[in-house]
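Appendix C reproduces, verbatim, an entry submitted by the partner laboratory led by Prof. M.T., so that reviewers can inspect both the input and the predicted structure.
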Amino acid sequence: MSLEPRPATSVRKLQPLAQLPDAETLRKFSPGELKLLRRRLRETVECVYNPLFEQPEIEHELLGPIPPSPADDVRAADNDDSGMDLLAGITGRALTCAQERHLFLRLNYCRYRVMKVLKESRSRRLGVEAIRELLRWEYATLRCRGDLVRINLPLVLAMARRARITGVDQADLISEGNLALLRSVDKFDCERGFKFSTYACRAILKSFSRVAVRTARYRGYFPTEFDPTLEKSTYLDQQRNGLESECVDELKSILGQNLAKLNPIEERVIRARFALDEPLETEDGRPPRAKTLEQVGELIGVTKERVRQIQNKALIKIRLALEENVLAS
């Protein structure tokens, strides 16, 4: 067991205040680089600072090859209780403590260098060299973060297998666990003396509990799964629409044959008030709009009250004609 003092690490955050350069400078970068740059200037930068980052040779050491796996560390990884051993045949061995520490130091060093570039350009426009330096370390951060997440993805699968949570879909557990894994990679401090799996397991289990509570609450609101066969029947609506169509056709027939003995003014009022001369559907799929009493009055040159009187008189004639047709049939 090493007796060396643990470095005084701390979580540092920085809200970027640097500004984008002019349009001519931005044209020197690809759309993907500009998208990454804008996202970096919009979001808070965070890293687990380590005093080792101030050493002159630390960049070459951390960005160099990962330390090899000693035999004793390999045996220790085989006996790890994180659940990684369940998928050993698929993914191979887990990282040793030295390899894991190296990767997390590399991740936080890259984020520290991103913060350093942004701090040097605070409240100023970024130059071309500053943008290239920022993108270099941002891409290095994404690569290292992706490696750590990809290596530890079997941990989520193993925890999902071991979790005995009923009523929750396995895909929901894995999805929530992956999000917890991403947050754990960003927050983990490798200098505290614990393996990442010990830290991440607790976060993953808490995420499983959250999804179980959320699913139970959802089940309370919606006790059954969606079933199209249980939807409300549209039979009555279809019958109503069919009846309306028949009534419109009958009305058009009466007006066309003038069975109600309407004069030209009465027929014009009825056709305008009920939009009988309009197509069944407009270009945007909506039903035709009937004209108001005032609009019809402007067409025939009378007041809207007079239009109402003509309409009521014409409707009485049409109703009598309908009754005669019913009795005749």
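Residues 71-92 have pLDDT under 50 and may be disordered. Additional entries are available on request from the coordinating office.
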